[in-house]
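Run log, item B.
One chain of 257 residues. Sequence copied directly from the ordering sheet:
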Amino acid sequence: MKSVSILSLTLCALCALPACSDSQRCASESLDSAPSSTVVCEDAAGSVGPAGPPHTISVTGYGVAVSAPDVVHIHFGVQSRDASAAKALADNRAKVTAVRAALSALGVVEADVQVASYSLSPQTEMDPATGTYGLPTSFVADNAISVALRDPARTDEAIAGVFEAGATTIHSVGFMLGDPQRLNVEARESAMADARVRAEQLARAAGVALGPPLSMQEVGGSLLMFPDAYGMGPSTTAPTPGKMQQTANVNVTYRIP
């Protein structure tokens, strides 16, 4: 009689459990410790519970933003030489003052003119008979100056102006963006728009509606410069800034029904 009672309790417990839908599989297992059962319902796709993980579409969007450089960085040197160290320094200081005045006339503000380095070097000669150096025969004063010119169209005018004012060497001329983040923002927005277009195309092909994005991740990008005509041309051609190109890549996952 005791065995029959336990069996009856087990059957009652199974009858009290909620039934699974036709699209789900039901599995029951008896626990040794007590006369009860556990039921796990799975849908046809194998997801546990009434609502499994969401259906999604994942795409990669590519974005590009292009702009002409709006700042020119010119690095040049001002050098003075004299038998007297004091006179070399004084002459150099006068040249630098004239160079700053020439840049100011072009609209360059003081904050965009920086002294990169400053030096005074004694020049000596070696005695070939003894292999030793004697007293300085002259002194060289050097100033290296960096200028941010915010009007690239006046690059030639600025270079000619600093030479006429006393500069002796142009070390480099570089074209850049005053606000590189602006190009980053444009490239990211372009990448997100491209991702949306790709996802909508896939959703239409699959016959489903596209929901909101569930996740977004930026996965790289680069800033490149393309000189006009790849820097080719006659030797008399002035330097041209070309174009700055910023790229962006994003991975986006959208929900679908």
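Observations after the first pass:
- The CA atoms of residues 61 and 193 lie 7 Å apart.
- The two ends are 55 Å apart (CA to CA).
Flagged for discussion on Thursday.
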